[in-house]
Amino acid sequence: MSELSQQIDTYITNLFGPRYDHPLFDDIHTAAQQAGLPSISISASQGHLMHVLAKIVGARRILEIGSLGGYSGAWLASALPPDGKLITLELEAKHAEVARANFKRAGLDERVTVLVGPASRSLERLIAEKAEPFDIVFIDADKGGYVGYLKQALQLIRKGGIILGDNTLSGGVLDGDASSGIGQFNQAIAQEQSLTSAIVPVMKSHVDGLSISVVG
Ligand SMILES: C[S@@+](CC[C@H](N)C(=O)[O-])C[C@H]1O[C@@H](n2cnc3c(N)ncnc32)[C@H](O)[C@@H]1O
Question: Is the pTM of this model over 0.90?
Fold first, then answer.
């Protein structure tokens, strides 16, 4: 199964790759790995999918929870208009530093702000400041935090905007374990009346899931 997943990821990436600055995005991966960051970013084909979703909703403002080295952030930020904004939240100062350098390398730094610290606190601050609503919130940090991030995201997203959750077919959910952070998050998006949600399989070195929840 993992070989098929890899084949699908490679096919989609090679098919659409020439439309995007793939060598640059590959550089982002390489720089993150050379800086000693873990290889846990989204795949290229998932990046394509999220880029297309950002275009579909006409995103001008995107919020990301979990920057790592800026790989998914680059896919999202490159779908924004030049005056658009990606705010990405990261706990680790070192990851944030690598992400900032990568956004600069990709020529996206003017439309990206990396906020360092626990995401729940950065989100609290954005809510308190009455930040302009976001078109997309992408959740991809500590899995135990997902349900809390969802509650906070609901206060920051516009009607018609989408909340994306990464890794939503992992965390034991396929084996019937609903108690993990992911299991609880999936239950929460399924039950939240203000959301209409789906989970689509995405291809990495293995199959995983991306939840897509539209507000309203
Ligand atoms: C799976 S990685 C993100 C990958 C990234 N979205 C990508 O695909 O390129 C998760 C990131 O979340 C960060 N993180 C973990 N707990 C966090 C927290 N409480 N607040 C903010 N970031 C956190 C980790 O340091 C790590 O960089």
Answer: yes
Count of domains for the chain: 1
Residue 1 predicted with pLDDT over 70: no
- Nearest ligand 1 atom to the CA of 42 is 8
User: How many A from CA of 68 to the centre of ligand 1?
Assistant: 5
- For residue 145, give the ligand 1 atom closest to its CA: 19
Instruction: Provide the domain limits for residue 100.
Output: 2-215
Nearest Cα residue to 216 out of 176, 174, 158, 151: 158
Residue 130 — left, alpha, or beta (φ > 0 → left; ψ -120 to 50 → alpha)? left
Q: Which residues line ligand 1 (CB under 6 A)?
A: 40-42, 66-68, 71-72, 89-92, 95, 118-119, 140-142, 145
Task: Supply the CATH number for residue 6's domain.
Answer: 3.40.50.150
pLDDT reported for residue 205: 83
